[in-house]
Amino acid sequence: MKKVPNLRFKEFSGEWESNKIEKICDIITDYVAAGSFENIRNSVTYYNSENFAQLVRTIDLKSNFNNKDFIFVDEKAYNFLYRVNLNEDSIILPNIGANIGESYYVEPEKLPSENNVLGPNAILLRSEINNTKYIYYLFNTKAFHKQLVQIIGASGQPKFNKTELKQMKFYVPTIEEQEKIASFFSLIDKKIELQTEKVEELKNYKKGLMQKIFSQELRFKDENGKKYPEWEEKKLENIVEFFKGNGLSKSDLSDNEDIPCVLYGELFTQYDEVINVVKSRCLKDQGFKSEKYDVLMPTSDVTPEGLATASCILVDDVCLGGDINVLRPKKYINGIFLSYQINHFKSLIIRKVSGTTIKHIYVKDIKDIKYNIPCEKEQIKITDLLIQIDNKIKFESLKVESYNKLKKGLLQQMFI
């Protein structure tokens, strides 16, 4: 087997050495069984206190500590569950659950509290002889995940333990080359982090702007600098006609067809407020057809939030599948404006949702919802501004995708 990577910094040469994980780094602790954790639930609280140690969960790492509802544990729980503080640069590797195998690099100075302990269902690793951050990037490679899949297997609940982890083998270079590689990927990660923050700032700006617009704190003027007429409160049934999609399922989809279609599930997974390009194609021309500026809303989902989703389609004659409410705006209503307004006032829809496991929204329940509607010209000015911001968000989001794609490709080339 080749013992050097395809892509390498020119100042380094020689073959990399193969070793088991247990020789490459220190496996500090194994996960604690969920049952053990349940036994001391009374020792856990959801507020910040100087007398408590913060429980670092994998969900906190995934959200980069953006969730402020931190969990803290008292001394009893601390002594029972956790044998080490996160007081050194470390790697946390979830070994059970939805994010199994995703690695997280933890720097103590970035943690919200100085007294941090590791939650259950994760393995903690660090190295005294190798570069810990290099190992973190190693855990992001295809080579690592390929071996991990073999350990996890396909049956039962996916999981692995530290004994299995110890036996995994990888090629590693000298410490000097490790440091160079880790520094290089850290720069890429910094670009991704800054670009992601830029996208989030734009999203927050859009959210705040929509609040000002739909509360009428911010108003637009005509070309002569005069205010537009006051907004009028109208019931939804007075500004749209209601229809329903039908006749499509996932089995009708095909990449080789040219008939555009939209399925209800795509409305909360694939599309935002405006649908410019239809992504799916179906086998036959069937079902209810769209008209430009129709507003599409799913009629069923597992969460109420999924039902409080509206997308204005700008393409005629698209096949619309079942479980889609079609709101066809009347002449003086801009469908894009209505889509933004419905999404902004999600609570008006959510309170009308019915059902237990599967949630539903029916026309009879939403037709009486009232919205404040400006004149058509002001609607257009509002939509033009919001579309401009959305386009900026999409443009900056593509940069994040580009950086991630670059990182993924380089990880493939610079590791064995």
From TrEMBL:
Domain Type I restriction modification DNA specificity: 15-203, 230-397
Keywords: DNA-binding, Endonuclease, Hydrolase, Nuclease, Restriction system
SUPFAM superfamilies, per the entry: DNA methylase specificity domain (SSF116734)
GO MF, any single term: endonuclease activity
Family per similarity comment: Belongs to the type-I restriction system S methylase family.
Protein name as it appears in the record: Restriction endonuclease subunit S
Species whose genome carries this gene: Turicibacter faecis
